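Data card: per-record layout.
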Amino acid sequence: MRNKIFILILSILLLSGLFTAIDPNLIAHTHIEEQLKASIYTDKQNYQQNENVTIFGQVTFLNGSAVKGASVSLEVKNPRNSTIFLDIEYTQNGGIYQSSFRLSQNDIPGLYTIYLSAFKPGCLTVQNKTTFWVSAFTIEIKGCDVSVTSDNRVEATINITLQSGTLLSLTIGVHFMLISPSGKLVYDRQEKPTIYNNTITNITLAFILPTTEPGYYSYGFFITDEKFEELFRATGWQIAFLYMPPSIATFSLHLSSNSSDYAIVDKSLNRFESIECTINLTEPASWLMVFLECSTTSGVIAAINKTMISQQNSLAQTILESTIPVLIPPPLNSLISLVLQRVFPTWVLFNVPSGLYTLTISTTAEIFVRSVCVIAGPKITSSSVKILDIIPSSNMAFSGGIINYNVYVSWNITESDKLKIIAKLNDNVLDEKVLNVEILEVNAANMYLSIAAPENVGEHTINFEAKLEKAQVFDQAIKTLNVVPQEYNITFAGKIAFWRTPTLWSHIFFGEQYEWVENQDKLSALLITDLKVIGVAEWSDEGKPKTIEISFNATNKISGEIAENLKFGEGVHYEVAVKPSGSFSAVVKILIAGDSEVIKTTIPVNDNGQLCFDIIYSQWMIGGFIEIAAAVIKPAIAIITSGVGGIIATLVTDVAKLTLLYVGKFIIDYKNGFFTHDSIRSFLLDIGLSLPETALEILDELELSCRNPFFALYSFILNSFHEGKIDLIKYLYATFRLGVALIMKVLPNLKEILIKVLEDFISKKFKFSLTEDIISKLNNFDFEALDKAISAVLSLGESIMTIWRYFTSPSEEGKRITNTQIGLGPRVEVDPHVSIIFSGSSTNLNLTWINDVYDLQVNINKTRAAVQFTVDPSVTSVYLAILSDESYSRKLLNGMGFNATEIEFWWQEESNIFNLIGIGSIHPYLQEMNININKTYINGFQKMSLYPIQTGRTLWLNFSLNYPFHKNLNYEIVVELPQYSKILDMYSDADYTIQTPSLVVWNSTPNWISIHFTPYGNDTTPPTVTNITQTPEDEISPYQPVKIYVNATDDLSGIKNVTLHYKINDTDVWNEITMTLNETMNLYEATIPGQPPNSIVAYKIIVYDYAENEYIADNAGAFYVFTVIPEFPSTLPMKIFMLATLTAIIIRKTKRKRRTPYLSPSKIKFL
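The structure for this 1167-residue chain is written out next.
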């Protein structure tokens, strides 16, 4: 019995893990319907005078959605139809209402009725009622028991007492029912005893068991009035006893640990007959496995020491591996899984102390039993406990938030003990779980611990301890918890640009400088994809991200291919560096031509809370020298050598080249912590140095088998393609050598035949005969020389192509990320939905807790939960007792994500189907859940409502996913954004499909998802642009920068970007500058660089909002224009000319007023 209860409790824990570790909140939606429905309940069915009565229920629309703010009128009437209580309540969240009142000492006993009337404007009034009993006494059950003797005599006893202030005695009704293991009512009896005040009355019922069906029987005592109408008390359904029919044969088995024994039975068992085996276990064993070789696997029941044990659907692989050598000799080991799990009914007991055990096997159908085999596992030398795994529900936790850990623990014990699992931080207990562990039951369990994350941001070490209290043994493990501030949301929402430098060729001959390009498709080598933030590497003292860890996929597109999967020559090798703005670049990876790798590195956050950095591809100079040197050496080898020796020499050159390249690559990787000494050693010894040896071995082996070294070479090349890409030069060369070798092998005298054919052709066509000199030269023709010539030409062509690629490939290319904001802001009340849909085989999930459950169906919505169990008919009474316990049912539904305020339990006699109906509310972040599990298949879905984080006018939805069934099933993840939303950016570690602007689907198992979207996808209004100004306004001097200001606003989706476009003179080339927001002026600004004299600059401004609406401010097509003045103003020459003229006129007039007398040269005297 303990085994059953323990397994059912484990089912709660497992079902509790069906939810991902997300911390969102539910946003209620308002619906208007014409018709309401209302439920009404009381917390008990029977009350005493002076006792408090609680009334509660829910008001919903007909579609089940909750109604908030509805008025609920309540009226309570006593058996005389007099009103004793009136109240009006209003429904709260979830449509729930509640009221209470206290009965008085004078309230008469009898049946009371509560009348309900619910109303909401715009809806029809709905009415309902319920009843409860009031008594002037209390009946208490002081104990009960049901047992069976060896002669099938059943004795059922119950102790009852009366407590009353007025009654001395009372005649009551006692209704007893006994249920068989298959759920059939086999005994039903009613008695009317008299009980006395403050006195315990014993009632005993004795009878012969009406049936001999093996298994657990259940019973129930129900205490009513003497008319068997009003229920006072009930025991509920309880386990009565385990009945196993007397055995028709007995056997004895003896074994120790790591051994087996079997008994030949060869008997037919009729329905409800049994056999018995005495097992003498001389040493404690970690497990005991029982196999029954019989004609069928169904309807077989087993018990050990009068305790029923469950038949196993599947066995742990570790048990199978240790069972094989004990049970079956090596030649038959491969049959073990089929034999054990499909042919034999199998039972397993764990933690089995030494001693005598009585194994009883019975059947509910006619079967033939051939043998019984028992296997004992490894010896238990002492009690032990081990933490096998700890799985967090998320990679990080928010400051002050909650994170769950699934702790998987196993144990070995020889006596009952108490297992305690504790999570600590700095010796402070964060959470603990206690589990009573018993012998002959399970030996492992999943325990869920909920931990409140510390307030301090950063990494914290969580210590986990699993301890057996009585044995005083324990095991420890640690997990690192990364705590981040809840308000921070890290994104890649900034500006992205691409650039490249000229090729070496163009730089030498044309002096080209670097240029910006629109996208990375126009780049030759660089291909950056899946760029994402994966965490915070370092936090500042103020609790802000200081260093961010990013990852991206980097691909080197220059692979040497001249067509898809067809190579000729080698590609160009690049080193990948990351350069934060204002800092030095650091090489993080070497990309060999055609390679693609995931790169992780850290980026500092600048003072503005932004990430600004470049990812740079630079030609790897060392790799280039190695490649070019190999390209020069290989033609020389081809000219000097020939035959297989030449091919091997070329192959060794290639291997040496690759080894040098990858050693250099590994040195860079090791410097950055990506590889260790062992990685390099593994490459050199296990891969690099083994390639030539492997090639030679293949050549030798194939040459011996086909006696054709060229065919061997051809086969080797065809089996040595790198990632499916054919090396054209090697392919053509090998094909030529193969053709020549095959022809020479089939026609050794091919040369003579060709000469003869040539002679005949020339003689007939041209009437000309070859001279003896020509024939002699033809006879001396050497195919080896032809081989050398062709080899040299092809090798030279490959070398020229390789060198050409280095000269024509860009020396550098880059991707620049700027203004990538680490956003912060309050959560906004929009309601994205995430649905996780799963299906697949349940046999791979190892769900041992449903051994007796044939089918489980779970359907949960916001206000109602329905769970249906279809169980093994032989254990119907066990599940009747367990599931009819209301406290257990509440825990079960709570573990599935539903808080039940009311439980309804439905079961029909002789049926193995149980139904639980819960009324209440779903957990805050869940919307809906459906699960269907049977012996072979599982499917279902869960739908969640999440909160995004606001950054400006846009939203980011970030969450991680945890898969309780691991990734053994087929999953589909669907993210449905609010209506009219539009996706702006998408990041995930798995492939996805954007089916509509607001719907994304993953047919895989992503670990995390990040979606940048705008809820204003229906915004069709362009931004508003006003007040375009420039500084200086005029008189702009040569090479003087001009600052442009603009006021850009958008009241709906918000401004996404503002870009200044300008061109010089009459060209058609527009230059772009991203305008930034000056928060002081609340204006966007950008600066046009200074221009030469007489330049005419035209500019326009283009603004986008987050709904991709565009506004172009271009001065009605005339653009905004300014002119750069010359070196001096244009009016200056005129001013100078006018001043000179005026001066001349003034001088001339002065001369006219004072004439100077004329002197002849002869009169001039020289001193």
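Known properties of this structure: The longest strand covers residues 526-539. The mean pLDDT is 76.

See the next section for split statistics.
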